[in-house]
Amino acid sequence: MDADTGQVFFARNADARRYPASLTKIMTLFMVFEALDTGKLSLDQPLQVSRRAAGQPPSKLGLKVGSAITVGEAINALSVKSANDVATIVSEAIGGTESNFARLMTKRARAIGMKNTTFKNASGLPNRRQRTTARDMATLAREMLKRFPHYYSHFSELTYQHGKRSYRNHNKLLRSYEGMDGIKTGYINASGFNLVASAKRDGVRLIGVVFGGKTGRSRDAHMVSILNKSWARARTSSTVSAAPAPRPFSLKTGTDQSSLEIAEIPIEPAPAQSTTEFEWGVQIG
User: Fold this and answer.
1) 115 is catalytic
2) In the chain, where are the structural domains located?
3) pTM: predicted TM-score of the whole model, two decimal places
4) Which one, out of 16, 92, 116, 205, has a CA that is 20 to 30 A from the CA of 24?
């Protein structure tokens, strides 16, 4: 997608409903940035760590109950480390409770055009009803770039230092793909390896979304492929060609899929899933 015009250059299964995993934190950060700009939060404001926040499973910083983290630190912990405990901390600061914050997230998402997205938590940890689409995630990334260019650089940070520990950004394309400067990875077993990315070359900015990679490496390779195919089309403003026929997607196997779909695809009811799909272990990214 061209970030300026919204034109789609390459697409497949854009409206299939997916588990966002830690892509959820893009919306969480969107809410944080709005709270900063409206004065509800300040960068140096300390946020208290609740028992619920401290009890979140990995990926996390491991903050202790009763300790605090500033909003500025929380932003980097979310964008680089993808810390689930910090997602809960900021959700409670803004929404009172994480469940109420998730309702606010969903309401705000719908307001910016994310018509097929529902949030149930701030982190992206497994929840059968937490769903989004590639089209909606591209919409979110585009809105993030338009609304918060002054905060966007947080997504390009390669490392985050907390105490004595240093954490590396999970988006490895920041180090290897020309022009790549954000924004977020995500993984749980049920989703596969996800990525929303943006890159800028010669004044042209593209947004790409990939869901369901079998591995982080295959996801990244797929992102590189769709971005590479899109640069020439973006520069010449050519007509978008028809997308290839959609391939079946498996939540269990994480079949590789690209992000956007030119033709509308009816939203199917969420499939029934066994609890074993959510034996996800450590959440990455």
Assistant:
1) no
2) 21-265
3) 0.85
4) 205
